[in-house]
Amino acid sequence: MNNMENTVLSVKNLSISFGGLKAVDSLTFDIKDKEIYGLIGPNGAGKTTVFNCITQFYKPNTGEIHFKGVGGVTELTTKPVHEIIKLGLVRTFQNVELIRELSIIDNVLIGGHIDFKANTFAQALRLPNARREEKKYREEAEKILENLGILERKDMLVGGQPYGILKKVEFARTLMARPKLIILDEPAAGLNDSETLELAKLIKKIRDEYDCAILLVEHDMRLVMDICDRICAINFGKLLSIGTPKEIQQNKAVQAAYLGVE
Amino acid sequence: MKNMTKQMNILKRYPILGFVLFGLLLASIPPLASAGILKNGYVTTIGGTLIYAIAAIGLNVLLGWSGLISLGTAGFMGLAAYISAYLTMDLNLPFELAMFLAILLPTLLGVLVGLVSLKIEGLYLAIATLAVSEVLRKTFEELVPFTGGFSGKSANYPTLFGLFELDRTTTYYFIVFVLVVVMILTYNMMNGRLGRALNSMRGSEAAAQAMGVNLLTHRLIAFALATIFASVAGVLYVHFIKFSYPTTWVLKMSLDFLAIIIIGGLRSIYGTVLGAFIVTAVPDLFLKQIPYFDNLSYVLNGLLIIVVIIFYPNGLVGIGYDVKKLFYKLTKRGTKNE
Predict the structure, then answer these.
(1) Segment (H or E) for A30
(2) Nearest to B53 by CA among B95, B96, B23
(3) Which residue did the predictor score with more confidence, A221 or B162?
(4) Average pLDDT over residues B78-91
(5) A33, B28, B123, B309: which is deepest, by most CB within 10 A?
(6) Residue B204 in contact with partner chain A when CB distance is under 8 A
(7) For residue range B58-79, what is the model confidence (pLDDT) as tens digits?
(8) Where are the domains of chain B?
(9) Residue B221 C-alpha, separation from nearest chain A C-alpha, in angstroms
(10) Containing H/E element for B230?
(11) Residue B3: what pLDDT?
(12) B188 to chain A: nearest residue by CA?
């Protein structure tokens, strides 16, 4: 087994191709405990594909992805997509995938789906164990919403809420699962400058208070440079460079990929 | 006025109480009929309506909550009706055992359709379920020893525990009891973990999976619940109407269920019952009284669906909120004037 000390996620020689196109080509990187890690690259670099390979929406052709979460180190590629969250690896979506017809708190409670132990029968009859469980997680969800400052909206429907609130609800939903690693898919997309600043604070706050690492797939360079401890830059599915924000900014290959070569 | 809002709050805190009161309200129909206030035929019509409501709640779980369409409700309901009739009349099995088997067998078939639903969606799923339903309907016509073919299959009012022989009125009470149980169970399930999971599956499958919702099991649960409720309705139907013909279990009936939940309200339990009343009881009780309107009830249903979709896209159950709003507006104006 790999040495996963201080490391929460280790990706080794990850490759996947669609038809003749190699979307990701033997990519290797690892994320340390409690690290805010950025994955950047120009459009079509394969960021989202890497992301989908980690969360098992795609099955990679080759490579290993080890994750240190609930129950020790797991090779993710052996797991079906709906079991990934059980290990403590949760993702958000680029376009915020919430249920408009449900209240905010019910949306957050979906994040606790895997924690509920009472079976359908017990729920249908509202047996004491099902009621207790529902109450317990509802309180937990309220605590998270309070921490994110949107508790007073808990009973409002998600449909019609402003975008910034929706992002927070999605965060709250991931936190319900007590994650070890949260993967954010372009969280700054659609936010204005002040909202992006607030998001940066929020991401740091979540890392500090909930003890988890964060992998950020992002276009907004300011946000990435601002909050990431380390950054992995890729282009055409291949690794360009890994380093601190400063190192990445000065890296010639990264500059060429983004700005072209003179 | 204050007292009334207080009562409303109690109902909100104890929704189960609301369902029970609703059941008692429905149970008041037969006494009113025997007292001569309502027509005697109302018991049969409303009983039939409540049976429709039970099956429609099942379809609402499937379409409203889970976002999976089915045009096969009538087929499954009919299958349960024939099985229950055959087991009680030809094999002389007790009602409870017959009911159990008449729910179990269609449900197994429904779960199979659920498996298929993993591969196909939307319109294709509608066609697939329609095909299943049509195969069943053809079977009802052709499998004469079991179904009686075109001449139909008769059944008796149920006998509970081998002791209590029900008549029309007591069977009606039994239907109300089952409806209330179905409403309570559905409410509990749809407002808990299962309901949230089905909701998330409808919203976005990717998000549902990322949250740990197993699509396979939840689709199977959704189809199982829909078929269980349809089967319960089928059993009640054959023992209340006492007859089952193949011409009953046709596409038109499945479409009626669709109309019921769309008119009444997707994801609304009371709305489903309301929809059942509008689609099945209103034409029978009122429209048939109007001359020439007899055969125009289909036209009315069609118009109603269009009107509802335009003005109440969340179902007629939304009218309640509008009425409440109007009520507050009026009372508020009243206090201002004082």
Answers:
(1) strand A21-32
(2) B23
(3) A221
(4) 91
(5) A33
(6) yes
(7) 999 999 999 888 898 999 999 9
(8) 2-337
(9) 9
(10) helix B215-240
(11) 59
(12) A124
CB contact under 8 A, B199 and A102: yes
Taking each helix axis from N to C end, the angle separating B41-59 and B251-264, rounded to the nearest 10 degrees, works out to 80
Average pLDDT in the B110-122 region? 85
**Tokens encoding A195:** 């909202």
The minimum CA-CA distance between B43 and chain A, rounded to whole Å, is 30
- pLDDT score of B337 more than 50: no
Residue in chain A closest to B183 (alpha carbons) equals A124
User: How high is the pLDDT of residue B323?
Assistant: 79
The fold of A1-88+179-262 is Rossmann fold (3.40.50)
Residues of chain A short of pLDDT 70, as ranges, are 1-3, 261-262
What would the mean pLDDT of B299-313 be, rounded to a whole number? 79
The model's pTM is 0.88
User: A112 and A177 in contact (C-beta within 8 Å)?
Assistant: yes
Domain at B2-337, CATH class: mainly alpha
Q: Which residues in chain A touch residue B199, judged by CB atoms under 8 angstroms apart?
A: 99, 101-102, 106, 110
Contact status of B213 with chain A (Cβ, < 8 Å): yes
Model confidence at B325: pLDDT above 70: yes
Sign of CA dihedral B312, A109, A209, A69: negative
Give chain A's mean pLDDT.
Answer: 89
Q: What are the residue boundaries of the structural domains of chain A, listed by start?
A: 1-88+179-262, 102-173
**A93:B204 CB<8 A:** yes
- A118/B193 CB distance under 8 A: yes
Tell me which chain A residues have a C-beta less than 8 angstroms from the C-beta of B19.
none
